[in-house]
Amino acid sequence: MESGAEVFKISGHDMKLKEYREESWKPWKTPLSAQITIEDSRLTISAETGGISLTIDEEITLEKSSGGKDFSLILKENLRKSGTSSFTAGTLTIENRSRLKLDEIFLPLSTFKLIKKAFYKEIDRSVDPIFHSSADGILKSIGSHLEENTLFSHNIKIPPRSAMETGKEATGKIIFYPLPPLLFHNDDFKTLEETIESVIGNPEKKIILGINNISHLFFAEKYAKNESVLFFTDYCTYAANRATALFYRTRIKRLLFSYYWIEDPDGSPESLRKIENDFNPHLFVSRICYKRHNNLGTCSQCSKNLSYNLKQRNKEFTVTVKDCITWLYQK
Ligand SMILES: [Zn+2]
Fold first, then answer.
1. Ligand 1 centre and the CA of 126: distance in Å?
2. What pTM, to 2 d.p., does this model score?
3. Can you give the residue ranges of every domain in the chain?
4. 34 contact partners, CB below 8 Å, separation of at least 6
5. How far does residue 162's CA lie from ligand 1's centre (Å)?
6. How far apart are CA 313 and CA 128, in angstroms?
7. Smallest Cα–Cα separation from 209: which of 190, 225, 193?
8. Could you give the percent of the chain with pLDDT greater than 90?
9. pLDDT at position 159
């Protein structure tokens, strides 16, 4: 492929999330062990879950069927379809106390459906408060832990994200260094350590490392006692909500803030910081070397610092290759 060639998008990796559609995400349903008892003039469904036992029974009139289909199979198939309920039928025990054999029973499906509906409605109604108080409890506990794990207080001015690509070339006293999200060689960790060490050898300087990958927590532990190393969690760590914020706050000493990603900040703790609109995060990063793997040349005689332009209809992209790692940005 040549520079400037037209490319076609197969799957979207842009920043705009697709509209959320409730029906695309089917909630998990709790399977219930239930028992159905069939009598000549009564049908009973009973179940037990989370310390709640529930029984629904209705008067019915059984008729003799000519179809010969096992009535217990009809019930089993049907009870599994639970509509909007949080439950579904798991293991079912069916007891036939009626005068008819199972393959002789006829009951209009509409009658059974009404009983089934009442059953699921009742079980949802009983269990709902338990579910909610449990979820509220978890959220409250995360909230109070977050308060306990207060942010490291500091008087450092945080520059915009676009001004942070400094790393080892930085010359100021306070260096914001977003760590590379992808490391290519085993030695890369060592190189990072050397860069950090070269800064902290100077008592006048502070380095603020941007955690961009869960493995970077290694540095948070390694420099936990070194006051000249501070941290923030960068956008690649996907600090999506307060639980993630807590995860980082409890593990990183001298954490300045976390960039949030995806979820709306409403109600988020103050440690989550919005990335500025003028900053253009990469769409993806790849260990494929764009040059070598597209047969544009070999890596041996290469500056390992390249840039290509790509076009896809009315969109333009920049491919940046640095040390055989490929970054894609939308222009
Ligand atoms: Zn290469």
1. 62
2. 0.62
3. 31-131, 142-277, 282-331
4. 45, 46, 47, 79, 89, 90, 91, 92, 93
5. 26
6. 50
7. 193
8. 37
9. 87
